[in-house]
């Protein structure tokens, strides 16, 4: 058997394949009616709680922090939590607790267990973030067949039973709890082609929650004429209240204002949530996704009217505000589709996992997945005398079919410099946000004469990057060190693995 895991910002969902090859969701081992796991954790001494356990315990342990939205910290090397012993827990480490919980659920649910898994990642994730997800799987002792992008997984599931979309251009609009992704795909038989990708980092349900949270805070301060409390219990409780009110505003059939009595500590107060105000601010967030959609289409010389279908997935996409926003922009002949927004990604991941030949006894059709590079990839030659905006040597163009290897040759003068360094970077627009992944440091060189060094950058099918250096004159490999950005805290796999293995998870693992 196989396992597909949608490791979401707000919720994590897993699926496997039934004996007829159709994907089914894995229920919570303790609550069979629960098909999602909240992506939150709580740590208390030698015990850790993940998912619903953590959600139900925060009032019992009021001085403990609910660790949430850790997925946004993938690739940053910044800790997301410090335990009672001042140990730093990184996003990868906390994610591994969620993965261990999901893994345990699957082992108890599937009669034959499972061997390997596929985990999904946002389409706009860069190399460092993708490798963080792979690292989280290692910490959880979860063997991966592959990682796959969330919109692509959803497209696989959608295309598995919808045979009429061949040769159509489909926009997968993935608006989740913490990220927004869009992917343009075409399908022909068992071949799925990704033709372009885009997205917005740190834009999702959390920003919608914040609109509600601001109203709660302002209502409290108006009622009691004092600052809003910031202790952990209040923070944890208001976070959940804000999320529930957001969902109610998003799902209302008839727009109306909501009045709620809210308890903060011993203080009770009434807050009014004006629908028009909420909708106006929410539409500003949705407009940011439209900017990304138009940017992606322009890169292909296309417009929205050239799309056949928009498929809405992700928790935030289930909002009627999102649906209505896009419905008014559609033209006759276009379809706007809700496609199991909370489960399609996990089910598509299970189908992809099954295509590796490790699925059920049913005959699984192999999936020919053809992706493209999410970002431009380039090199910056480090030079103390370089200008404020150094020249980027572009090696891989955005939306180039994967896998691809591109090479660049540089003349090296060892007598001038013992070491030579290059910054490896990914970006959409060099005039805007250039993300430096790390430094390639080569040397010291044994030769003193000038020579030519070839740097090969491989962008793999899963979106991660490989690096190889060699002497272009004689073909010999050149040793190098890849240095991540400096951080006040050092991530060490063995130490983080010891933290994970040193806690009892949900009282039974």
UniProtKB/TrEMBL annotation:
One Gene Ontology term of the molecular function aspect: ATP binding
PROSITE patterns in the record: HSP70_2
InterPro entries reported in the protein's UniProt record: ATPase_NBD, Heat_shock_70_CS, Hsp_70_fam
Presence of the UniProt keyword Nucleotide-binding in the record: yes
Keywords recorded for this protein, A-Z: ATP-binding, Nucleotide-binding
Superkingdom in the source lineage: Bacteria
Gene3D superfamilies reported for this sequence: 3.30.420.40, Actin, Chain A, domain 4
Homology family: Belongs to the heat shock protein 70 family.
PANTHER family the UniProt entry points to: HEAT SHOCK PROTEIN 70KDA
Protein name per Swiss-Prot or TrEMBL: Molecular chaperone DnaK/molecular chaperone HscC
Organism: Pedobacter metabolipauper
């Amino acid at each position: 058997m196989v396992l597909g895991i949608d490791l979401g910002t707000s919720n994590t969902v897993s699926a496997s394949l039934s004996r007829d090859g159709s994907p089914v969701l894995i229920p919570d081992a303790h609550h069979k009616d629960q098909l999602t796991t909240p992506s939150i954790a709580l740590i208390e001494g030698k015990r850790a709680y993940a998912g619903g356990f953590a959600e139900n315990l925060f009032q019992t342990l009021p001085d403990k922090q609910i660790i949430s939205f850790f997925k946004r910290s993938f690739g940053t090397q910044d800790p997301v939590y410090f335990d009672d012993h001042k140990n730093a827990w990184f996003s990868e480490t906390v994610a591994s607790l969620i993965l261990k919980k999901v893994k345990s659920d699957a082992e108890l649910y599937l009669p034959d267990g499972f061997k390997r898994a596929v985990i999904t990642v946002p389409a706009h994730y860069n190399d460092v973030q993708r490798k963080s997800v792979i690292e989280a799987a290692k910490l959880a002792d979860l063997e991966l067949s592959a990682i796959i992008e969330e919109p692509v997984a959803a497209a696989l599931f959608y295309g598995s039973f919808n045979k009429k979309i061949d040769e159509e251009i489909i926009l997968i609009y993935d608006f989740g709890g913490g990220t927004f992704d869009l992917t343009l795909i075409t399908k022909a038989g068992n071949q799925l082609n990704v033709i372009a990708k885009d997205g917005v980092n740190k834009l999702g349900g959390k920003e919608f929650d914040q609109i509600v949270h601001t109203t709660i805070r302002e209502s409290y301060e108006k009622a009691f004429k004092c600052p809003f409390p910031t202790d952990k219990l209040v923070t944890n409780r208001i976070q959940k209240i804000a999320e529930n009110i957001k969902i109610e505003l998003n799902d209302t059939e008839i727009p109306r204002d909501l009045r709620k009595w809210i308890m903060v500590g011993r203080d009770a107060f009434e807050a009014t949530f004006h629908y028009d105000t909420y909708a106006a601010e929410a539409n500003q967030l949705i407009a940011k996704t439209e900017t990304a959609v138009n940017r992606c289409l322009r890169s292909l010389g296309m417009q929205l009217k050239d799309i056949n279908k928009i498929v809405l997935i992700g928790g935030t996409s289930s909002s009627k505000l999102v649906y209505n926003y896009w419905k008014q922009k559609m033209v006759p002949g276009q379809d706007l589709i809700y496609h199991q927004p909370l489960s399609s990604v996990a089910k598509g991941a299970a189908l992809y996992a099954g295509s590796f030949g490790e699925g059920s006894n049913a005959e699984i059709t192999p999936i020919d997945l053809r992706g493209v590079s999410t970002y431009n990839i380039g090199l910056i030659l480090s030079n103390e005398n370089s200008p404020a905006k150094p020249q980027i040597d572009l090696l891989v163009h955005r939306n180039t079919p994967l896998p691809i290897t591109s090479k660049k040759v540089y003349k090296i003068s060892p007598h001038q410099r013992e070491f030579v360094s290059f910054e490896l970077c990914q970006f959409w627009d060099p005039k805007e946000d250039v993300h430096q992944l790390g430094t390639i440091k080569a040397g010291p060189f044994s030769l003193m004469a000038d020579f030519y060094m070839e740097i090969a950058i491989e962008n793999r099918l899963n979106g991660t990057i490989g690096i190889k250096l060699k002497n272009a004159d004689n073909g010999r490999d050149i040793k190098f060190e890849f240095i991540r950005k400096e951080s006040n805290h050092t991530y060490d796999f063995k130490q983080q693995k010891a933290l994970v293995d040193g806690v009892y998870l949900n009282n039974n693992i």
